[in-house]
Every structure is written in structure tokens, then in C-alpha cells.
Amino acid sequence: MIVTSKDYDKAVVMNIEEERLDAHNSNELKNELMNLFEEGKSNIVINLQHVRFIDSSGLGALVSGFKNAGSREGSVKLCALQKQVKSMFELTRLHRVFEIFPGEEEALASF
Amino acid sequence: MKNLLEVDIKVPNQTKYLRLIGQIGENVAGTLQKFNNSDPEELAYHINLVLTEAMANAIKHANKNDPDKDVHISINLTDDQLSIKVYDQGQGFDISSGDIVTPDPELEHGRGVFLIRTLMDSVKYRRCEKGNVLEMHKLLHKTSNNTKD
Q1: ∠B78-B42-B88 over CA atoms, to 5°?
Q2: Are the beta carbons of B111 and A67 separated by less than 8 Å?
Q3: Number of structural domains in chain A
Q4: Which secondary structure element, helix H or strand E, spans residue A7, and what is its range?
């Protein structure tokens, strides 16, 4: 999985450079998030601008990160969701769990 | 019931093939422009998703990630429905048959079957010769102004 991360004052922005987030690569996303937590970084913005497709495993990996961040008094927030990806969050009611922003700037400003 | 399209494919029991199968589903959905179930982009996503979820369940839960097993997928399009069958070679997995209930949003697992049952009109899982088959159907409604096509 290709992921790039950039540190800002209040949070890390993780950019997922993949078109699909599914059962083939969702464990890698969990591991990438776990690596950040182990570095003491628990406020994270995940930029999903490149993700065109997400399945239940991809959603599960994001929920896992959300819960892990919460247990470390941090937070995982999302930004730049494509239309169909956003509709998956609505269908599964996950839009009520995650804070979702149009872009990185708005997400970073919320910390 | 006119048979318009039939796709039969057997792939190794590996998640790296999810993308391929999902893409085939999107391409099949692309032939459904004359139906008004939903907008074409949404329908393509839903077919991709249903195939991805069904195949991931077959690989992980039924075939237990055994690399020597296969998953067989059959997509059949008639003039009034899209049928998808996903055959596994394992002991099967649990697919609830009661009311469709949205899973607790804070759970990490349990959304796959919910998504399949929500997006398809009928879903059955039964034993077959070499394992089990997940049978899913979506009814297609023609738009009123091109029913003579």
C-alpha cells in the first residue's frame, strides 16, 4: 500500500495513494496507523482523495484506527471523500462516527 | 427472459484478484445504461462492491485462505435481472436471514453481508456439489421511454 504522511503542528496527515481500499490492503492500512500510534502520533487526518472504492474491510480498518486513536486521547478524522465513498459512510452510518471534512486545511483547523 | 450476457470466471483463492473481479462487475454494470435502477456510476460501484464482498467472504471465511482452492464467479444478465453466483469450496459462513439491521457503527467487522443484503434484492446461501454458493439477484427496471428497446 502506498501511503505518504506529513507532520503538522497539531496532527499528521496521511494520504492514501491507492484507488481501492479493500480486503487485500486494509490490514496494511491498520499497520500504517499502528506505526503512527507507536510513534506517539494519535491525531491523524486521513486524506481519501485518491480512494475511488472502499469495501467493508476498508471501513473496518478506519474504525479500528478511530478506536485506537480514541484510546490514546487522539482522533482520526477524514477528508476529501469521493462521492461514492461518502455514500458508503452514509449507508453504514459511519458518517455519524467520523468527522469528515472537504479538505486537509479544514480538517487540520479542527484540532 | 432473454439472456443478454453471461460471464463465468474462476480465480485463485487470493484477495489480490478482488480488484479484477470488481472491475469486471463495473464493466457489466456499464452495459445496463438503459435501466433506471440508479445512476450508472452508483450502480457500477454497487456491483463492484457486492462482488468484492462476496468474493472476500468466500476467500477468507469459506475457503479459509487456502491457496489451493478457487473461487468461481458467474454473472448472468437477462432483460429483467442481474444474477451473481459466487461458489466457494469450503464449509461455508454464516449469513443471517432475518431483518436487515445496520451493524453498530463502532464495530470493526460485520458490514460485508449487510452491504450485500442491502444492495441486492434477494440473497441466498446454499450447499452445492463442491461447497457452497452465494446467489444474489438484482431486479432491473427499464425506463418508461425505452421499454421497446
Answers
A1: 60
A2: no
A3: 1
A4: strand A3-7
Parent domain of B38: 3-146
| Section B56-62 average pLDDT | 92
Per-residue pLDDT at A106 exceeds 60: yes
Average pLDDT over residues B104-129: 93
DSSP bridge partners of A43: A75
Which structural domain, as residue segments, surrounds residue A104?
3-109
What confidence tens digit (pLDDT) does each residue in A35-73 have? 999 999 999 999 999 999 999 999 999 999 999 999 999
B12 touches chain A (CB under 8 A): no
Cβ-Cβ contacts under 8 Å, B118 against chain A: 91
Q: Does A106 touch chain B (CB under 8 A)?
A: no
Q: Is B16 on the interface with A (CB under 8 A)?
A: yes
Q: Which residues contact B35 (CB under 8 A, 6 or more apart)?
A: B43, B140, B141, B142, B143
Strand partners for B6: B76
Residues of B in contact with A23 (CB under 8 A): 15, 18, 52, 56, 59-60
- State the total domains in chain B: 1
Asked whether the beta carbons of residue B108 and residue A93 sit closer than 8 angstroms, the reply is: no
Return the higher-pLDDT residue of B80 and A21: A21
Chain B neighbors of A59, CB-CB under 8 A: 111
Residue of A25, A56, A92 best to disrupt the B interface, most CBs of B under 10 A: A56
